Every structure is written in structure tokens, then in C-alpha cells.
Amino acid sequence: MNPSLSSRAESFPGAEMTDAITGVLYVVATPIGNLDDLAPRAARLLGEVDLVAAEDTRHTSRLLRHLGVAPPLLSLHEHNEAARVEQIDARLAAGEAVALVSDAGTPLISDPGFVLVRELRARGRRIVPVPGACALVAALSAAGLPTDRFLFQGFLPAKGGTRRGRLEALAEREETLVFYESPHRIRDTLADLGTVLGERQVVLARELTKTFETFLEGTPEALLARMADDPDQARGEFVVMVAGAAPKSADEAASVDADALLSAMLAEGVGVKQAAAVTARTLGGAKKQWYARAQALKDGD
């Protein structure tokens, strides 16, 4: 264990360092663009740990050179993560401190690390988060869309049919939808958003914290037109945020609930007349109304 790691008070009153002395995996957030966004605690730890497990050691080496530190590096990416568990666990068991970093932002958020953290936690190892930059949180904070509830889906499927299927499954969700997208698929994704969700409001956060950071807002069709006029707007890494579906009225919600109830009973072999009676007792309304609806569902209407 590096002897310079120690528990000590933060510079402001009432806060205490959570940094342990031995056998800890630190999950360290790194900048998504602007290097000044690296938290002081993260910068210190990266110079003090015994090992840095990095998604791309070449990329992380540039950050470490910027900090003027040179801890040993170990690659940990989606293709070798499971194989690295025993190696890193052995280092922790020996009392060393290890930092886990991804290429940008917070590890595990559409980045490697989940398998490692899950397995080490199951073995009783201590996992300590070192918060910092996260593209989806940064984008939401400046997008002007509701953030009290949001649904993060990472990267949408690469194939068009599968991507549209995923969007169709999300079409009725009322939360703000958040995706990551790459420059070579952003136009296809916008086209599919327009096909499935129509004129729903979309906000694109492009190149966050970098020189050409841009927020674009509009319908999918309007955003595609903007990119046709200015191809530079299709460059860079994107956070795609989509307004949630409008809330259903009470009548619409009741209709959906009734259909689900009737369909479930019919699937179990309950007769139309009995299903209608049960629905009337459960949700109210006339049995005649529910009978007609049950019969329509049974007939596939």
C-alpha cells in the first residue's frame, strides 16, 4: 500500500475523508472533456494508489501525465473484465489500493466496471466512489427538460429494426428519456425518433465541456434539417434527451388497466361473460360495457 494514503479531514468543517488505508477499490470519475473538471480528491488518489485499472491505458496515460503522476496501469475493458477480477482481488487482499477509471466520466455508466464491482462486493471488499463528471447528469442539468424522473438507456441498439423496437417499447414512458449516441449513428437515431415518437421535443448535448460544446433543441425532423445545413453539428459524442410522453387521462389509464385485466383473464381461459363480471366488480361500470370490450379483445380487435 502506498504510504501516502491516509485518512484525514477535508478542508471544510464537519467533513471527513472516507479514504481507507488498505485494500480499497476506488471508482474514480474522470473528466469528459475539460481536464479542469477533475476533482482534487480524484487527482490526489490517482497519484497515491498502487494500481490504476483503466479502460484504455493509452488514454489514461495522457491524463496521468497531465497530473504529473505515474502509477502502474492495468487494462480493464469489456473484453477482459471478468478475467481481471482475481488479479485485482489479490491486490486488494494484499492491502493495496486500486483506482478504477474509464476513458471519460464515471465508470460503470455505459462503461466497464460492473462485473468487477459486483464480484468484489460479493467477496466483501470495500468499494469507494470518488464522484465527478458524468455526461448524462451534465446534459440533463442544462437541457431544460424535466429531471425529477428520467430513464437512462445508455446506447440504443446499432441495428435500425432493433433500435426502433426499443423506442416503441419506451414510447409511453412519461419520464425524460436519455441516451448516448455516436456521431456516425446520430442521424439514423434521429430519423427513428421521428418515426416512432413523432414531433416529441428532443435536446442534443454535443461535445460536453469541450471547445465546441453545443445544445440543440427541436423535433427530430428539425434537428436533422439543422445537420443537413451544418454537417459539423453531427460531429462529436452526443447525449440525446427526449421529452417523456404526455400523461394519460384518468379515463385512458382506466381503459389500459381494464384491457390488461380482461386480457389476462381471457388468456387463462376465463369466459367472456365471467371476465366482464369480474372487471365490473373490480373497476366499476356496466357488465354490458365490459362484455363488449372483452369480446373485442378475444376477437383480436
Describe this structure in words.
- The protein is α/β, with parallel strands linked by helices and 301 residues long.
- It has 3 domains: 24-133, 3-Layer(aba) Sandwich (Cobalt-precorrin-4 Transmethylase, domain 1), CATH 3.40.1010; 136-242, Methyltransferase, Cobalt-precorrin-4 Transmethylase, Domain 2 (2-Layer Sandwich); 250-298.
- The chain is 42% helix and 16% strand.
- It contains 11 helices and 10 strands.
- It has a 5-stranded parallel beta sheet with strand order 3-2-4-1-5, sandwiched between helices.
- Strand 8 (202-206) and strand 9 form a beta hairpin.
- The radius of gyration is 25 Å and the shape is globular.
- The chain starts with 23 loop residues before the first strand and ends with a helix.
- It comes from Halomonas halophila.
Give a nutshell description of this structure.
The chain has helices at residues 40-48, 57-67, 81-93, 114-122, 135-143, 160-170, 186-197, 220-229, 250-267, 272-283, 287-298, and strands spanning 24-28, 51-54, 73-75, 97-101, 126-130, 150-155, 176-181, 202-206, 214-218, 238-242. By secondary structure, the chain is an alpha/beta fold.
Provide the fold topology.
Blueprint: E1 24-28, H1 40-48, E2 51-54, H2 57-67, E3 73-75, H3 81-93, E4 97-101, H4 114-122, E5 126-130, H5 135-143, E6 150-155, H6 160-170, E7 176-181, H7 186-197, E8 202-206, E9 214-218, H8 220-229, E10 238-242, H9 250-267, H10 272-283, H11 287-298
Parallel strand pairs: 1-4, 1-5, 2-3, 2-4, 6-7
Antiparallel strand pairs: 7-10, 8-9, 8-10
Helix pairs in contact: 3-4, 6-7, 7-8, 9-10, 9-11, 10-11
